[in-house]
Amino acid sequence: IHWKQHRHPGALQEDQRAGEDVVRLWDLDKDNNFSLGGALDQINCLSYSTSKRILAGGLVNGKIAMWQHRAGSYVQEHWIVLPTIDLTDSFIQIQWSPAHSLLAANNISDVIILNEQPISTSISVQSAVVQISPYHVQLETLDPPNILSIRTDVHIRGVCNSEDHVVLWNNKKIVVYEINEEKNFARLAGTFDIDSPLTAVYQQTVFTADTTSITARNFQGTIKQTMNLAEQEGIPISIDICGHYLVIATDNGFVKGWDISRRESRQYISPKNISESLPDTSLVRTVKVNCNGTKIAIQLKKVNEEPDSRLLIWYVEQDILLGYDFSAGQTIQPISDNGSADMDYEDLITGCFANPDQKDGVEAAAAVEQSIWRHWISVLISTYL
User: Fold this and answer.
1) How much is the pTM?
2) Among candidates 50, 47, 60, 64, which has minimal Cα distance to 12?
3) For residue 285, what pLDDT is reported?
4) Are the C-beta atoms of residues 341 and 332 closer than 8 Å to each other?
5) Predicted local distance difference test score (pLDDT) of residue 337
6) Could you tell me which residues come within 8 angstroms of residue 51 by beta carbon, excluding any fewer than 6 positions away?
7) Alpha-carbon distance 261 to 56, whole Å?
8) Buried b (16+ CB within 10 A) or exposed e, 80-96
């Protein structure tokens, strides 16, 4: 039995009757109870993180099941099942850290500390790659429709893909897999050692990042081209490829792009300092470019690393920033260095991001926040300290 702390006096209890794989929750105030399924085996122990709203259960088969509570009342519909973590041996005790994103698991012979890591995903052309365990990703393709599992000996920290390749890395090593035409077999195409927090792939080239440059390499790690960054531009924090355009964002708020269709990549836009165009201290978090390089989407973050509710679109040719604030439910006035505003920005942004029936934008904001939450949901991936 485990009590939920703070503002809710309900009790959490694992139900082991006849080896059941459910957790029963009892709301003492409302005299209501319900169960959470999805554990797939008998539950030995429980631990609840108030800050993360995650209930973890140690199973007899050496796995850890998790459920996350969404905002709102404590009813069954507000709990979702998270991916199961595969470990070894049966657990007799698990416990969340009160101050860090850590979960301790005791299986009698060992105590394992699990550290939270965002799940790695990548979408390209008609395929998507999703990390489902520390050493395992799943590739799903639409044409032809197929699901392919790829297992590796690299403790995966990041993943990217193109139409014919899947690239995995762990900040120390990069592994490249070539996918056959039927999309049902992955062949090891190359591997090399490198410390690169950002990686992208285009045709037969892997792009890596360090503190001062973006480097184009073949699948064995040989350097083909180096694209240097100016000192004032900062360190790359985000990279994206769509079509034959590559864009990056830096920690100083700069966005920069190259046309990579030729043998030698060439810069196709002048670097833009997005941070200087903002009326506050928000920072650039991620960038995504469209297929012809004319529009770049920019996700922001606050100084304390929390997500910003605004999404910006940089119209490269007009050098105008448009945006929508999902929290306020309203468009952002166009921002440009030359002060021009010759675009019907309000209709454009409203049409892209809001439902015209949602007058105050509140429902639109909630829908977007829910979508972002699902996309960025984190799972615990085991690491040994």
Assistant:
1) 0.70
2) 47
3) 92
4) no
5) 56
6) none
7) 47
8) eebbbbebeebbeebbb
